[in-house]
Amino acid sequence: MTVRYFAQLRDYTGCEQEIVAECESVQVLLQNLAASYDEPFRSNVLTSDGTKVNPEIFILVNGRHLRLLNGMETRLNESDEIALIPVIEAG
């Protein structure tokens, strides 16, 4: 599957996108990415307990927001495209 990173998440990962091994769910994917990239990726993408997505991050699976799917339990397939997009504040 393809994971695309936007804004400061690109700084934390060092790339705009990558192909990752298939994961059974968004939760497993995010835990794997957090283990790979550590801080500050982990603290910016996940809540402090690691069980939820930080509310400052939008996650799209094939263009659909995670909240319209099954949240962190959303099942993933090899052909999926996941986008991690931080909320950017103007001001």
Question: What do you see in this structure?
Answer:
Strands 2-1-5-3-4 form a five-stranded mixed β-sheet. It is of the alpha+beta class and 91 residues long. 25% of the residues lie in helices and 22% in strands. The mean pLDDT is 93. The protein has helices at 8-13, 26-37, 41-45, and strands at 2-5, 17-19, 57-61, 64-65, 81-86. 18% of the residues are buried.
Topology:
Blueprint: E1 2-5, H1 8-13, E2 17-19, H2 26-37, H3 41-45, E3 57-61, E4 64-65, E5 81-86
Parallel strand pairs: 1-5
Antiparallel strand pairs: 1-2, 3-4, 3-5
Summed over residues and divided by their number, the pLDDT gives a mean of 93
User: How many H/I helices?
Assistant: 3
Neighbour order of strands in the largest sheet: 2-1-5-3-4
SSE order, one letter for each helix or strand: EHEHHEEE
Considering the chains and any ligands shown, give keywords for the structure:
91 residues, alpha+beta, five-stranded mixed β-sheet, globular
